[in-house]
Amino acid sequence: MTQPLNRLETLSLGIVVERRRSASPWADWVWRPVSVIPGAPPVDGGPRILLEGDGWLHLHAATLPLELYRTDTEGYRLNLSQEPPRLWIVLRPDESGEAMVPFFVTASAHEGEAYQVSGAESVDTVPMPPEVIALVRDFTEQHHVDVPFEKRERKRHFDKDGARR
C-alpha cells in the first residue's frame, strides 16, 4: 500500500463523544465531541463508556487518524495562532440514524470549515492537547512554504474605444 506523497505524519486519536439527553421534541439525544485521547488504541466491539452522569455519557466512540499534509500547513498555522488551538471532529449518523459516530478529525482550520458547509454532518471543535500541538507545530515549521500573493490581471470586457469585445 502506498502513501500519498504529501502526507507525512499520522497520529491515532481516540474520539470522546458526549451523549446528552435532549430537551427537543424531535431528538432523544444530543451528540457532540468533547475531547481526544492521543495514541488511543482502536475501539473494538463498540464504544466504551468513560464517564456517566444523570442524563449524559462520555464514550470513547472511535479511534481515527489525524493526518498531517504538507499542502495544509497554512491551515495548521492559522489554527495554531488561535487560543487555544482546536481539532475539528466530524460526526455522521450511524446506519440506524439514532447515533452519531466520529467520521473524520483534522487540525486544519480550512478543512474543518469545508465540512461545516455541507450540512450533512455535525462538525464541532475540541481543544488540541499539548502533545498534538507540539506535533502540528513541528510539522508546520518543518514543511511550511510561504506562497507569495500574486494579483491576477483583470480581463477587459471592452476595448480601448469602449466597444464591447
UniProtKB/TrEMBL annotation:
Pfam family name, one: DUF3305
UniProt superkingdom: Bacteria
Name the record gives this protein: DUF3305 domain-containing protein
